[in-house]
């Protein structure tokens, strides 16, 4: 941990994404997700479960006025651990009540955050006006004292912060803050930022180390990293300190949530103990060395920890982050970058437990991994973080969205059989086709905010250095002591490994640090570094020179097809192999290979044929590899089993497609890990 290496993400206003791959994803966000989500937030999507999000803000705003005269009352509404959902019976005559999940406010905040990023890349006055008007509605719901959570504003504020474990007030606050900072940075408008600050001040008065203040912390993390963003945007140190307080309190004994009154009590025992892990609160965070519990909560916490480690120069906290990171990538991450293997608690499972067909691998969790990776890179540029970030992005994140941007996966299995999803209760969470939307709509807007801010993951910078972590066509401006350099990247990623970095320099020399992907670290080639000072460190090639008006560095990353096997402690993958090319994980689909994918096996020494092909109107690279289809064994009339006999297998060409494109051609079987033919 060395302060000299610290970097910050390049402002989105200084990055223009031109890449056809990523630009297309961003346009899908702008043209499909944002308008659709806006309708969803306003209960305008026919046939979809209503969200009530904007309605809750409106009701809260109205009651805000009325309450000033009346005094408050609180009636604890019907409640479940998973979240409170009170779907009204009569949609025509809704009462002025709170409806939906307790964290429904966060859906708007994620939407406005994605809008903000999108505006930096594509100015859109109409969209901005819509956001401004919605911000007015949200701010009208805010209380005089700064409190802003519609669940408690509508139901009565006497119970605020009484159930930190489950009720998500601090989670909604975190998303409010992330959205507010993003909107301010994109548009210069500070109305939502001021609302976030007022709520932050309220929270700061309520929680803290001082005597008499509450020693609680968020049940669902995110406030930790959001407060850091608020600090970085405003310079107000109290926000940073509040975040540090939350992180340091977690896991202390007595366990804070035990003192709360939870309507759903579990008899003290094994299950109750698991709750501590679920919230990453089983021990103080500095002692944690295994990623546990709810995966999204986990990676959001670790992201906040990394931010704090950087800003407080806290070596101990950084060491914990690194141990947790290494544990995750070496024992608990799918080859797709998916994390959180079990649907029970949407959680990390035990070490090496990575089942393919019951995988949870929530889209939000892979997104959270990307957040965390970028924060680790800000402290220590080491390609191990960027490699995992890239793995998650091109696979476990992108699989969350259909190629037309109109439907989504919450759960991202590595193997699916439509019949199992219907008849096997253990797999009910796995869907064989993407869904239009979700009652608990966390993933689509999370995708929207990540994809539309992808530039801030590709580039970070410090005074004299620009780091390129991800390769995508883009133009970046870099300030060097008051002068502006322009860096233009073109790349065929992820389909070919040619990258060209053109630089229009300044009068002063500076460094461009180029990540060398782990998958070609020994084979890559570079041209155009003559006359430059170069060195390689932790997977980055540092090129320092006084860049001229038209200097160019060219990288060539050979994109060989690579066949992988898993650590043999991953029971589910024994005897199986998976195919990757560059950063992209491939899979077999029934649409190309027929049914019963489990009868197929791959010749691991086969010569691959890579060719362009269309999937649902999108051009990708497909891979054909030789393998076999074994003759089925049918034991008619004699039960299911027989003494082993020789089984015939017939040579076939296995057709692999990028994993993220699966289920874009209707419902069908899919598998990433394929039997190995020996
Ligand atoms: O609790 C809020 C969000 O809902 C979580 O991050 C997701 O995992 C989903 O449970
Ligand atoms: Zn989600």
Structure summary:
The protein has 18 helices and 22 strands. It has 678 residues and is an alpha+beta fold. It has a six-stranded mixed sheet with strand order 1-4-5-9-12-11.
Regions with little confidence, pLDDT below 50 for 5+ residues:
74-82
Distance between the termini: 46 Å
Which whole number gives the mean pLDDT?
93
Radius of gyration: 25 Å
Structure description:
Strand 18 (609-615) and strand 19 (618-630) form a beta hairpin. The chain has 678 residues and is an alpha+beta fold. The radius of gyration is 25 Å and the shape is globular. Strands 1-4-5-9-12-11 form a 6-stranded mixed beta sheet. Helix 8 packs antiparallel against helix 9. The chain has helices at 20-41, 53-70, 105-121, 125-141, 150-155, 169-187, 191-206, 223-234, 237-249, 270-278, 295-312, 315-331, 363-379, 383-397, 418-423, 443-451, 455-458, 590-593, and strands at residues 8-9, 15-17, 415-416, 459-462, 465-468, 474-480, 483-491, 498-504, 510-515, 525-527, 533-537, 540-545, 551-556, 561-564, 576-581, 584-589, 600-603, 609-615, 618-630, 649-658, 670-671, 674-677. It has 18 helices and 22 strands. Mean pLDDT is 93; it is low at 74-82. The chain is 35% helix and 18% strand. Bound molecules: beta-L-arabinofuranose (FUB) and zinc ion. Zinc ion (ZN) binds at residues 362-364, 410, 442-443, 446.
């Amino acid at each position: 941990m060395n302060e000299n290496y610290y970097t910050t993400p390049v402002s989105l206003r200084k990055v223009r994404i031109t890449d056809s791959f990523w630009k297309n994803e961003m346009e899908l966000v702008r043209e499909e997700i944002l308008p659709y989500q806006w309708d969803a937030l306003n209960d305008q999507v026919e046939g979809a479960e209503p969200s009530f999000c904007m309605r809750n803000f409106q009701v809260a705003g109205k009651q805000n006025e009325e309450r000033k005269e009346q005094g408050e009352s609180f009636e604890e509404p019907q409640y479940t651990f998973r979240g409170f959902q009170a779907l009204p019976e009569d949609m025509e005559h809704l009462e002025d009540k709170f409806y939906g999940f307790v964290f429904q406010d966060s859906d708007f905040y994620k939407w406005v955050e994605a809008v903000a990023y999108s505006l930096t890349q594509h100015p859109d006055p109409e969209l901005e006006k819509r956001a401004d008007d919605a911000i007015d509605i949200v701010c009208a719901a805010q209380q005089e004292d700064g409190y802003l959570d519609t669940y408690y504003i509508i139901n009565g504020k006497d119970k605020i912060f009484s159930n930190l474990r489950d009720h998500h007030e601090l989670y909604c606050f975190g998303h409010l803050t992330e959205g507010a900072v993003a909107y301010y940075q994109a548009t210069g408008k500070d109305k939502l930022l001021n609302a976030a600050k007022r709520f932050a001040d309220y929270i700061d008065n309520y929680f803290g180390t001082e005597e008499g203040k509450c020693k609680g912390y968020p049940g669902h993390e995110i406030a930790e990293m959001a407060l850091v963003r608020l600090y970085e945007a405003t310079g107000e140190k109290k926000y940073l300190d509040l975040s540090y307080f939350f992180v340091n309190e977690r896991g202390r004994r007595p366990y804070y949530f035990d003192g709360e009154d939870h309507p759903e009590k579990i008899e003290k025992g094994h299950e109750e103990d698991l709750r501590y892990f679920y919230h990453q609160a089983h021990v103080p965070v500095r002692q944690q060395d295994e990623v546990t519990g709810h995966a999204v909560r986990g990676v959001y916490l670790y992201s906040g920890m990394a931010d704090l480690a950087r800003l407080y120069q806290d070596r101990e906290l950084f060491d914990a982050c690194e141990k947790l990171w290494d544990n995750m990538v070496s024992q608990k991450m799918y080859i797709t970058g998916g994390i959180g293997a079990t649907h029970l608690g949407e959680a990390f499972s035990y070490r090496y437990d990575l089942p393919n067909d019951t995988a949870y691998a929530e889209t939000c969790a892979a997104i959270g991994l990307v957040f965390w990776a970028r924060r680790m890179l800000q402290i220590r540029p080491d390609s191990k973080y960027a490699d995992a970030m890239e793995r998650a992005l091109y696979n476990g994140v992108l699989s969350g969205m259909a190629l037309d941007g109109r439907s989504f996966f919450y759960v991202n299995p590595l193997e699916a059989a439509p019949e199992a999803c219907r008849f096997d209760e253990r797999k009910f969470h796995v869907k064989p086709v993407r869904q239009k939307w979700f009652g608990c709509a966390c993933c689509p807007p999370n995708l929207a905010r990540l994809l539309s801010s992808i530039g801030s993951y590709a580039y970070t910078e410090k005074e004299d250095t620009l780091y390129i972590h991800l390769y995508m066509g883009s133009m970046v401006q870099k300030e060097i002591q008051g002068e502006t350099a322009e860096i233009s990247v073109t790349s065929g990623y992820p389909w070919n490994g040619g990258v060209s970095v053109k630089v229009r320099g300044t009068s002063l020399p500076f460094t461009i640090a180029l990540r060398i992907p782990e998958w070609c670290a020994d084979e890559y080639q570079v041209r155009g570094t003559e006359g430059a000072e170069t060195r390689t460190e932790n997977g980055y090639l540092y090129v320092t020179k006084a860049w001229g008006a038209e200097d160019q560095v060219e990288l060539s990353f050979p994109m060989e097809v690579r066949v992988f096997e898993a650590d043999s402690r991953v029971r589910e993958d024994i005897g199986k192999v998976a195919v990757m090319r560059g950063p992209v994980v491939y899979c077999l689909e029934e649409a190309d290979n027929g049914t019963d994918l489990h009868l197929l096996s791959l010749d691991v020494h086969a010569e691959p044929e890579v060719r362009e092909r269309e999937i649902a109107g999108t051009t990708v690279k497909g891979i054909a590899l030789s393998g076999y289809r074994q003759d089925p064994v049918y034991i008619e009339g004699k039960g299911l089993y027989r003494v082993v006999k020789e089984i015939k297998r017939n040579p076939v060409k296995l057709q692999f497609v990028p994993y993220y494109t699966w289920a874009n051609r209707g419902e069908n079987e899919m598998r990433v890990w394929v039997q190995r033919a020996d």
